[in-house]
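User: Structure please.
Assistant: Input sequence and predicted structure:
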Amino acid sequence: MTTKRLAQLQWFALLGGALGLGVAQTLGFGLTLAQCNIGSGRWGIANDPWEAALLSTAAAVMVLAAAASATVIARTQSVSYEDDPPLSRIRFFAIAALVANVLYTGIVMLDLLGNLLNSACRGA
């Protein structure tokens, strides 16, 4: 695999999970507002199916990003992250991406569980 291809996989691994988490959180917040506001109540937006679809998609992106980082780590196993760039830098970011994507996936799973088991709209 070329260095350019490894770098592309490494950047997807590093940014894909974070972007998936950010998009899912932002759209999920908007969905909750759309369901709970009186003005948009007539639209019939159900929070649970949309949240499940959003967070499942985000989790799938995170799993793909983790797989990309694992691929980069496997392809650069002969290099230490303390060696000369660019392969050492690619390996370092891939290791960081793998750790981050595992954490992001845990956050999304907990968020999904909380959304499905909790009521979205409650009075104060």
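DSSP finds three helices and no strands in the chain.
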